[in-house]
Amino acid sequence: MYRGDRDQDTICAVSTPHGVGGISVIRVSGPKTLSFVSQICKFLPEHPESHRAYFGSLKDLSSHDEIDEVLATYFKHGKSFTGEEVIEISCHGSPVICQSILHQLVQLGARPADRGEFTYRAFMNGKLDLVQAESVLSLIESQSQQAAKLALRQLKGSVSQKLEDIENDMTWILAHAEAGIDFSTEGIKVVENDIVLNRLDKIEKSLEELVGTFKVGRLLKDGFRVVLTGLPNVGKSSLLNLFLEDERAIVTDIPGTTRDVIHGDTSFKGVKFTFLDTAGLRESVSDLVEKIGIQKSREATGESDFVFFVFDVEKGLSAEEIAILDGLDPQKTYILANKTDRLAQTPEVFAVEEALQNSKFFQKIGDLESFRKRRVFFVSALDKKVRSRVLEDLVKEFGDLQLENTVLISNSRHLENLTRALENTRRSKSVVEDGLGEEFLAIEFKEALIAIQETLGKRFDDQIMDRVFKEFCIGK
Ligand code: GDP
Fold first, then answer.
1. Which residue, 36, 341, 410, 447, is most buried by CB atoms nearer than 10 A?
2. Tell me, what CATH number does 157's domain have?
3. How far is the CA of 336 from the centre of ligand 1 (A)?
4. Tens of pLDDT along 430-445?
């Protein structure tokens, strides 16, 4: 789709969301931008100033009828988002007007832009590296303050800078390894193994750190997916509404999917949370059919980041509930003992512990005390404070990270490449440690460098371009 021979075309598209709005913006980019647009915007001077908006009447090419009153902002070649000559036409936000203007531009010889083609051109013209291009998309799509902040930091180059540093270190090692090959016949050692190992260690550490940030980076970007599970009538729906702050309007029922799930989004401390109530489980669990119920609950919870297992504290944990718990991953499970308002006195955590003692879940926990402290909540769906008490704890799990100053990756393409680079780096270390010689180091370590360069887009092929830009929509 993205080929060099199309890069000389002048392209156009509506860059604002589709539909009716106060204004819409049509972006035109390419070498013939001014010559095309000035034929329908006669009010534009022959040599417009860059970054200046001009106001006037946009007219039909053949009938000369006025289509709209518009504002045309001119960006000269080299000074625009794409790096090409660009004009942004702000017109009234009607799809009919947008279509007529696009039609005029196409008649003049402009081509409708492909998905992400403006950002693609910015990349090809060296305005952005590939990591930054991807963060444009993340920023547009961000659904919480934290996600937007993360994307903006990436757009400004926080990840890119770190990768550039790693790339420089890698290039140093490869240059020395290759020089070593040339001199080896003369018995000259260009650089001592210890020094190379030191540098490899440093690279390994940087890569490990970056790979290790993916989990948090992805959570900040996409938000936390939390599944509420448990037997019928324990209070899952009530808690769901509590967490969503009674945002019933966005609690939606999606029938006809593989399983029926009620879900809704909310935000806490700038982080997005998606809550899912495993409604589809209800019937199968109630006439259990134990195995099927447990299987279904596994499926529903498997894709989540956290599971809130809810039970009725008045009734205690039943054997059936312990069986469901056994199928859950303690690493992501929180136990919500609900309906505490029905109890005459403060509930005892020991009752939960006792019930868990002989379960498989308990065997997986390891440290029961710490699990109980962090993961067992006595709650009541009638108590509004429960929301912040529980969510605070989830967010806190990531609190020790100085998010403002940490470079985080959040894109799976980056994760794959950096993991590859890390593996190659580790193998390169063994090559040096085993004294296998510079040739072998050069071969092995080259792969690590390639992985970094592919991440930044310094090396790319059609496959990489397609993978990155197919995610975009038209006009971006
Ligand atoms: P679900 O089937 O697990 O989704 O449970 P629901 O949320 O539909 O709740 C079942 C019943 O328990 C409803 O009548 C709720 O009003 C009630 N309920 C839920 N949570 C609480 C609670 O914390 N305290 C009290 N007293 N009643 C609750």
1. 410
2. 1.20.120.430
3. 13
4. 999 998 888 899 999 9
